[in-house]
Design goal:
By secondary structure, the chain is α/β, with parallel strands linked by helices. It has three domains: 2-77; 93-275, P-loop containing nucleotide triphosphate hydrolases (Rossmann fold, 3-Layer(aba) Sandwich); 280-401, no CATH class. It has helices at residues 31-43, 70-82, 89-105, 114-125, 140-151, 166-170, 188-193, 210-220, 264-267, 280-290, 296-314, 326-337, 342-349, 363-372, 395-401, and strands spanning 2-11, 15-20, 23-28, 46-52, 55-61, 130-133, 155-159, 172-177, 181-186, 199-203, 226-228, 237-239, 245-250, 271-274. Strands 3-2-1-4-5 form a five-stranded antiparallel beta sheet, covered by helices on one side. Strands 7-10-13-6-14 form a five-stranded parallel beta sheet. It has a two-stranded antiparallel sheet with strand order 8-9. A hairpin with a 2-residue loop joins strand 4 (46-52) and strand 5 (55-61). Helix 3 packs across helix 4 (114-125) and helix 11 (296-314) packs antiparallel against helix 12 (326-337). It binds adenosine-5'-triphosphate (ATP) and magnesium ion. The site of magnesium ion has 4 residues, from helix 5.
Length: 402
């Protein structure tokens, strides 16, 4: 029996990546191969593959991998050609795309955990309607656009928060011309839904006019998937083409008063993916990536300030009514990058988000005091102490923020 010892580089549901000297190759993940590979990885040893007649036998081995034998892959490959995967090929490809390729398609500047990104990719590939929810400036639109980009499918964008007349945006307009009389011109949305495999972004669905929701109700229902061209019951309908995916974004939460409460029935038509607010480390990593030449302490201070506002919002009785979004922190950092001081940048980008009613007890005082703590020369000043000498912000708060 011929036997090869190979180093395992990775194992997933569809394939095993192996190394032999300088050669690397991939073998299909049969249940037997996976089982032995996992044992080998647990023991820190290598995978052995024996060729016995027409069969391959897997085992673990503590010996060194075979060196530089380019015949190994050639010889073993003929066995892979004969191999029929247990799941159908399309499914195996879909799984391989989601679990292997998708991560590299996420833009490096998008901070979204692997799991959420893979879930996003998977939902789109499975033709689900996706709703990105989360606070303002948390990357909902960015993630939705990145997904459309990554999948390389025809893409259409509608900002429903900005449309005053949903019927003309989503359905079309009736016009009059002397020679033709009245005629109907359909909207670009009508064309979009008839485009196979299209990805259609419905940005700011939560701010849309309720009439837009009514129009979309049948379009988004997996059992219906059609658009009626007129309000009349017997009016013509347009079918949603095969493979079309809708991605909507919504600010959901009581902080967003200008947002309408989305109809429960509409919400039910979506798979929900929530964008979380970044913690200090992630915020810092993002800002450093965006402004690599900026002062590192400054960036770290900005990340500390914004994440302190987010932590404060999670407390039982928060002293502020909103936190600083990633959108705002990017703007904050960009000013510092352009030579404004931390305080100047905060004054124009962050302070206006916080109400100054209430003087020393105001949210503005809270945020100013927080920022002051990160200005080196002011660290020991008592600028924002309250009259009785008691600080709104304790040293502990600051320690936990930085
Ligand atoms: N998770 C994130 N990763 C990377 N950048 C982010 C993230 N969240 C926000 N940003 C930054 O903030 C900007 C605004 O993000 P985006 O427009 O996607 O927010 P949004 O959630 O759609 O906000 P809104 O609710 O106001 O529409 C982005 O261009 C990016 O610079
Ligand atoms: Mg948005």
């Amino acid at each position: 029996m011929k036997k090869y010892i190979l180093k395992i580089t990775s194992v997933n549901k569809t394939e095993l990546k192996l190394e032999s000297g300088k050669n690397t190759f991939t073998i299909p993940a049969t249940s037997d191969a996976i089982k032995k590979a996992k044992t080998a990885m647990r023991k820190g040893s290598n995978l052995s593959i024996g060729i016995e007649g027409e069969k391959l036998k897997y085992g673990t081995s503590s010996s060194m991998p075979n060196q530089c034998n380019k015949f190994v892959s050639a010889e073993l490959e003929k066995y892979w050609d004969q191999y029929v995967p247990p799941v159908n090929k399309e499914h195996a490809e879909l799984m391989s795309f989601i679990h292997n390729d998708a991560i590299s398609l996420r833009p490096s500047l998008l901070m979204l955990p692997d799991l959420q990104w893979k879930y996003l990719v998977r939902s789109a590939m499975r033709g689900k309607n996706i709703m990105m929810t989360g606070a303002a400036g948390s990357g909902k639109t960015m993630a939705a656009k990145a997904l459309a980009n990554a999948l390389d499918r025809p893409e259409f964008y509608y900002n429903l928060g900005a449309t005053q007349d949903p019927r003309s945006t989503l359905v079309g307009n009736t016009h009059f011309a002397k020679d033709k009389g009245t005629f109907f011109s359909e909207s670009s949305f009508v064309k979009a839904i008839q485009t196979e495999d299209a990805i259609i972004l419905l940005d700011e669905l939560s701010r849309a006019h309720p009439e837009a929701w009514n129009i979309l109700m049948t379009v988004l229902d997996p059992g219906q998937r059609y658009l009626r061209l007129d309000e009349a019951d017997n009016s013509p309908i347009v079918k949603v083409a095969k493979g079309v995916t809708f991605i909507a974004t919504a600010n959901i939460g009581n902080e967003y008063t200008s947002t309408r409460v989305i109809d429960r029935a509409l919400l039910d038509r979506f798979t929900i993916i929530e964008m979380e607010l970044l913690n200090k480390e992630k915020e810092e990593a993002l800002l450093l990536q965006m402004y690599p030449e900026a002062d590192k302490t400054m960036i770290s201070n900005i990340a500390s300030i914004v994440s302190a506002t987010r932590d404060e919002m999670k407390t039982e009785v928060p002293r502020i009514s909103t936190s600083v979004s990633t959108r705002a922190s990017v703007e904050f950092a960009s000013l510092c990058h352009d030579g404004f001081t931390l305080e100047e940048s905060a004054e124009v980008t962050v302070y206006p988000l916080f109400d100054d009613a209430g003087g020393l007890d105001s949210e503005r005082t809270f945020i100013k005091q927080l920022v002051q703590k990160f200005i080196p020369s002011n660290t020991d000043d008592n600028l924002f102490n309250t009259e009785d000498g008691e600080e709104l912000f304790t040293e502990e708060d600051i320690d936990s923020a930085s």
